[in-house]
């Protein structure tokens, strides 16, 4: 019961601190681009890696399922729909929850246990304005960008697989892709990924700033940030499916 | 002036401060001395609002720290320089940026910041360290940069948390000398938390001995040196007092 109460007290404090920090733009604005590069641009390789193999597997699986039952050009439909609506945002989100969530929690956790966070406070600088806000905003802005790249790469690798390993031409793949295309498929995935970015960065910051007890505490905070980030992504995924579809 | 008025602080079942009352006089260096783990650093953190007392008050310039709103607390912190036990330098920033961060926050122009950084580094005898990262510095150098970061703010108060812990005797003496010089050059009121007796005698105008959460004895350096309290005597001479503490 105490832990639940503590969680709500801490969360309430975070909302108040967050609003105050957002208004303190002179502190967080100069740090935003560096965080966008670190959390977004530097995450592109892992997102592209995941997307390439997702596209390949989707093309092969759909061909296996459709053979002798559904025209093969539907491989294009399944690959694009699955990548844009679900697998692109969610798998990219999961991969980034590992990379970004762990990075943020470990960095802030180390700063907490080495008193660097206290040092910020004694310099009259809010840790929420200096550490949390630029990371959360950067993640909200950059997760959709990384996801968009991952979507494109996933579809391209699905197309490449279909053309080279399946008995399918580019024209047929495109026909399938365009047949059920809806612009909503793209923005739905991007809206989801922005929310994933916000929650992954917030979890990382929350766990990091509340780390206690040296290296072991930082390790615990990092693990919790990744696990909670992944769980939050799945919950948000279901939420957006209910609300937007 | 800084004043602790009957301050109580516990962490769970563990009572750390148990009615601490102490006055830090203006323009002097007061050393808070005591055994390890008796709450000296905890007391220090109450002054800048990093910790809040469970009961009692901490007054700085007549203002109760716990009653300040956010803006007032931030303004109070700009008047206080805090030197952390392990320096707490920001790993990702150069020495220059470590010092400049607080000055930028105060809205000083870049030329003034550059001057203050150079002056502060000169005072701690590290004029060439500006572009180095904390990882490239020795323990003693990091502590000196920590002091430079505090004095760059030209604070009214400087709080030192175990400034000589982990240093060799020569570096400790240099650090003591630096604390004395910093006070003379800035005229700041200083409070030093330490369990290093030799260091305490070297920098203090007054010494307060913290034991079991409250002040056991306080006085001038000579008064503490000549104390008849067996516990304080035992501490000063490095011999446990029978029956008081194992």
Short recap of the structure:
The complex is a heterodimer of chains A (245) and B (246). By secondary structure, chain A is an all-alpha fold. Helix content of chain A is 87%, strand content 0%.
Q: What do you see in this structure?
A:
The complex is a heterodimer of chains A (245) and B (246). Chain A has helices spanning 2-23, 25-39, 44-66, 74-113, 116-122, 127-165, 170-179, 183-209, 214-244. Chain A has 245 residues and is an all-alpha fold. The longest helix of chain A has 40 residues, at 74-113. The radius of gyration of chain A is 21 Å and the shape is elongated. By secondary structure, chain B is of the alpha/beta class. In chain B, the strands form 2 sheets. Chain B has a 6-stranded mixed beta sheet with strand order 6-7-8-3-9-10, with helices on both faces. A 4-stranded antiparallel beta sheet of chain B has the order 2-1-4-5, covered by helices on one side. In chain B, helix 6 packs parallel to helix 7 (197-203). The model of chain B has no long low-confidence stretch (mean pLDDT 91). At the A-B interface, helix 5 of A face helix 2, strand 6 and helix 3 of B.
By helix and strand content of chain A, what is the structural category? mainly alpha
Find the CATH topology of the largest domain in chain B: Rossmann fold
The sequence of SSEs of chain B as H and E is EEEHEEHEHHHEHEHEEHH
What general form of chain A does the structure show?
Answer: elongated
The total strand number of chain A stands at: 0
Count of helix runs of chain B: 9
Strand content of chain A: under 5%
What's the architecture of the largest domain in chain B in CATH terms? 3-Layer(aba) Sandwich
The CATH superfamily of the largest domain in chain B is known as: P-loop containing nucleotide triphosphate hydrolases
Task: Specify the helix fraction band of chain B.
Answer: 25-40%
In total, the number of strands of chain B is: 10
Quaternary assembly: heterodimer
Biggest β-sheet strands, sense, barrel of chain A: none
Low-confidence stretches of chain A: none
Chain pair forming the biggest interface: A-B, 15 and 24 residues
User: What is the first-to-last residue Cα distance of chain A?
Assistant: 37 Å
Sheet with the most strands of chain B? 6 strands, mixed
């Amino acid at each position: 019961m105490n832990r639940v109460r503590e969680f709500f007290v801490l969360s309430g404090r975070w909302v108040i601190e967050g609003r105050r920090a957002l208004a303190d733009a002179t502190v967080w604005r100069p740090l935003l681009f560096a965080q966008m590069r670190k959390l977004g641009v530097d995450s592109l390789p892992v997102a592209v890696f995941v997307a390439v193999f997702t596209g390949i597997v989707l093309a092969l699986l759909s061909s296996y399922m459709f053979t002798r039952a559904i025209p093969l050009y539907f491989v294009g439909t399944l690959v694009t729909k699955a990548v844009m609506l679900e697998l692109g945002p969610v798998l990219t989100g999961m991969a980034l929850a590992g990379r970004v969530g762990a990075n943020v929690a470990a960095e802030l956790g180390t700063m907490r246990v080495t008193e660097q966070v206290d040092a910020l406070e004694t310099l009259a600088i809010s840790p929420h304005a200096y550490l949390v806000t630029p990371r959360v905003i950067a993640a909200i802005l950059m997760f959709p960008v990384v996801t968009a790249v991952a979507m494109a790469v996933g579809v391209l690798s699905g197309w490449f697989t279909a053309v080279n390993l399946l008995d399918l031409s580019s024209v047929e793949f495109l026909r399938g892709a365009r047949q059920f295309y809806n612009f909503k498929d793209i923005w739905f995935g991007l809206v989801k990924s922005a929310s994933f970015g916000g929650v992954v960065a917030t979890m990382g910051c929350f766990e990091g700033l509340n780390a206690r007890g040296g290296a072991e505490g930082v390790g615990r905070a990092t693990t919790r940030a990744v696990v909670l980030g992944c769980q939050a992504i799945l919950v948000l995924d279901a939420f957006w499916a209910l609300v937007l579809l | 002036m800084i004043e602790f008025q009957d301050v109580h602080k516990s962490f769970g079942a563990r009572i750390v401060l148990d009615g601490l009352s102490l006055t830090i006089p203006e323009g002097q260096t007061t050393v808070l001395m005591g055994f390890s783990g008796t709450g000296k650093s905890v007391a220090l953190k109450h002054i800048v609002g990093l910790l809040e007392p469970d009961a009692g008050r901490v007054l700085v310039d007549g203002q109760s720290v716990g009653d300040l709103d956010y803006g007032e607390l931030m303004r109070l912190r700009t008047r206080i320089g805090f030197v952390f036990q392990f320096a707490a330098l920001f790993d990702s920033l150069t020495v220059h940026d470590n010092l400049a961060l607080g000055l930028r926050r105060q809205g000083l122009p870049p030329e003034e910041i550059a001057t203050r950084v150079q002056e502060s580094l000169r005072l701690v005898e590290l004029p060439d360290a500006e572009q180095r990262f904390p990882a490239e510095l020795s323990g003693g150098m990091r502590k000196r940069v920590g002091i430079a970061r505090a004095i760059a703010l030209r604070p009214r108060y400087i709080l030192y948390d175990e400034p000589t812990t982990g240093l060799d005797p020569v570096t400790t003496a240099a650090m003591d000398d630096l604390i004395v010089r910093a006070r003379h050059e800035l005229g700041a009121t200083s409070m030093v938390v330490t369990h290093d007796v030799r260091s305490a005698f070297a920098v203090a105008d007054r010494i307060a001995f913290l034991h079991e959460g409250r002040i056991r004895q306080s006085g001038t350096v000579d008064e503490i040196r000549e104390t008849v309290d067996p516990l304080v005597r035992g501490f000063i001479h490095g011999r446990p007092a029978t029956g008081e503490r194992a």
